[in-house]
Amino acid sequence: MNQIYDVVIIGAGMSGLAATIRALMFDKNVLLLEKHSIAGGLNSYYSRGSRDFDVGLHALTNYANPKLKHKNVNNNNNSDNSSSDNHSSNISNLRANLRANYNPNAFLKVLRQLRIPFDKMDLQQQRISKIDFAYQGCTLKFSNEMELLISEVKEYFPKEIDNFIKLINFVVSYSDDNLYQPYLSAKEKVSEIIKDPLLLEMIFTPLFLYGSSWENDMDYSQFVIMFRSIFLEGFSKPKGGVRTIINLLLSRIQEECDKNAIYKIEKVLQFNKKVSSLKLKDGKDGKDGEWEITLHSGEIIQSKKVISTIGYVETMGLVEKLEKEKLAKKDSEHSELVGNLSFTETILILDKEIPANYQDTSIIFYNNNSLNKFFYNKPKDNVDSNSSVVCFPNNFGVNSLSSTSSSLLSSSESMIRFSMLANYQLWSKYSREEYIIEKARLLKTSKTLLKKLLPTIDSGDTGQAKIIDHDIFTPRTIHKYTGHLQGSIYGAKLKFKDGRLPTANCHNLFLAGTDQGFLGIVGALLSGVTIANFYINQE
Amino acid sequence: MTQEEVRQVVVDIIADIAPDEDLKNLKDDIALREQLELDSMDFLDIVMELRKKYKIEVPPEDYPKLATLGSCVQYLSPKLVN
């Protein structure tokens, strides 16, 4: 009964599920271990009372429609010919560059590798999202049609429109083939093109919030990837939320198991299995042997290869068998290796639909700071109440009067989610009483922001929507359920893009997921697929 | 298998891998990569499916022989005798 697996994958988040599907497709004897009782990792779900909630997913980036290739290119040339000023000719050159060089397909590629038909994702596109710098009174709107953001920049930053188009051309032409490019400050690089400091901050705000593991900056190649995936491709969301994605991945695992009588899904995918240590055994002739994976229960598993999705330092903690305190100390020694950025999330449930005049907005990237700056860093207080990502899950898909665009709630209710930058250390040290008090304070902060953004809600006026329920989670919750140190959601500042650990004695141990460096749900799936493709068949 | 059947084997595999592509008007003498949005990851999946469904091993040095539908038929026909 002492079987040796071909590969053990640690963590049933998006990257672990994707890697498992690929391993099964390669006919490998694979075991996926998850410490929690359900799949999803940082993008998961839960129910409270009769309501279903999503964790993580606000929206998927990299929207692409297989039926509309080059969807961002407006083939209607009327606008090109109607005016011959400089901007229009720049814009038509940009269209030509997009047509020739840009083919958004990361998302379709990953679905294809996982054999998930696009239509099964049941995606609803965003309506409009806003970058709202409240103090400056400046809002830029964008949608999945890039023309909107261009016209917004033209209107509010007329002096910068040529620079902005130049930036898009740069982003389109950038080659991201080389995984080993040295880190480069995106802020420095982009400020060579965009001169207006306010526009610069506004462009960076959604990119930071949806995928930077650095504070107040990001690596230039990550900037390019994020700019493409958000501004050139855009947002969408499965109608059923994150459950749709997880269920599709799980049923693909089931399908692959069904093809081979040896595999049973309950053997391949095991929940409530927490790994406590990883040890590389000595093999014959001085070569490395198998990995020995010890679980908290004492159970010992052997495998030729291990793919860990739990983070770099978290994985090294298992290899080096570090005690909790020592690991915490390692955190502070390795600021490059443990992510500093975590978030709280406040979910408000309204008894009615979102008021009609606010139904056009899917996501607001809100910032209220007098300094023409968005501070993307760990706040001094437990949350940064000056900024937030506000997501309206009901405001996706075609807006029609009778639409109930999110199937998570009963038709008459709606939901608003507020994500705020948070300080893990503060949240983690509160006593139970303090924690309850601070959560109540966060609820109040979120309601104050709601009043600013949607003044009519909960105003007491008859007929207006009221808040009937709420839920909050904090960096402490994220740490508890995902095991990510400091409740970090984008992982460490340093990334290991080829999935190799730069440490001795890590032969046949590979990283996928956040610390591999492809971020977001699409990124995580791509991470699992590429690491599996690359290493699982390698001798 | 007839040449037509071998061709169909390859087209079916591609249809499996890339369900969103239109495969009706594929030309036999033009590289598949130029007609479809297939990348190297997809080609590896074609090789994988040949192994899984027909027990045919395609070593990496033979990958160029899968470039067009025509060359696929030529290369695979002797291997797909049944």
Taking the alpha carbons of the first and last residues of chain B, their distance comes to: 6 Å
Query: Quick one: CATH superfamily of chain B?
Result: ACP-like
The share of residues in helices of chain A is: 25-40%
| Count of the separate structural domains of chain B | 1
CATH topology of chain B: Non-ribosomal Peptide Synthetase Peptidyl Carrier Protein, Chain A
Oligomer: heterodimer
DSSP summary, beta strand count of chain B: 0
Question: Could you give me the name of the CATH homologous superfamily of the domain at 4-52 and 243-336 and 491-535 in chain A?
Answer: FAD/NAD(P)-binding domain
Report the sheet with the most strands of chain B, covering strand number, pairing sense and barrel closure.
none
Helical/strand content category of chain A: alpha/beta
CATH architecture of chain B: Orthogonal Bundle
In CATH, the topology of the domain at 4-52 and 243-336 and 491-535 in chain A is named: FAD/NAD(P)-binding domain
How large, in whole angstroms, is the Cα Rg of chain B?
A: 12 Å
Classified by CATH, the class of the domain at 4-52 and 243-336 and 491-535 in chain A is Alpha Beta
Major sheet of chain A: 7 strands, mixed
Name of the CATH first level of chain B: Mainly Alpha
Structural class of chain B: mainly alpha
Shape of chain A: globular
Strand composition percent of chain A = 15-25%
Q: Which runs of chain A of at least 5 residues are low in confidence (pLDDT < 50)?
A: 70-83
Low-confidence stretches of chain B: none
Q: How would you describe this protein?
A:
The complex is a heterodimer of chains A (539) and B (82). Among the domains of chain A are: 4-52 and 243-336 and 491-535, FAD/NAD(P)-binding domain, CATH 3.50.50; 340-481, Polyamine Oxidase, Chain A, domain 2 (Alpha-Beta Complex). Chain A is built from 17 helices and 18 strands. Chain A has helices at residues 14-25, 78-82, 86-101, 106-114, 146-156, 161-173, 186-191, 197-209, 220-233, 242-259, 265-268, 312-319, 324-333, 424-429, 432-453, 475-482, 520-535, and strands at 4-10, 30-33, 45-48, 51-54, 123-125, 128-133, 138-142, 236-238, 269-270, 275-282, 288-295, 300-308, 342-350, 361-367, 387-391, 414-422, 467-473, 509-511. The longest helix of chain A has 22 residues, at 432-453. The two termini of chain A are 24 Å apart. Chain B is mainly α. Chain B has a single domain, classed as Orthogonal Bundle (Non-ribosomal Peptide Synthetase Peptidyl Carrier Protein, Chain A), CATH 1.10.1200. Chain B has helices at residues 3-17, 32-35, 40-54, 69-76. Chain B is globular, with a radius of gyration of 12 Å. The model of chain B has no long low-confidence stretch (mean pLDDT 90). The A-B interface holds A 25-27, 66-67, 103, 105, 108-109, 112-113, 115, 117-118, 529-530, 533 and B 16-20, 37, 39, 41-42, 44-45, 48, 52.
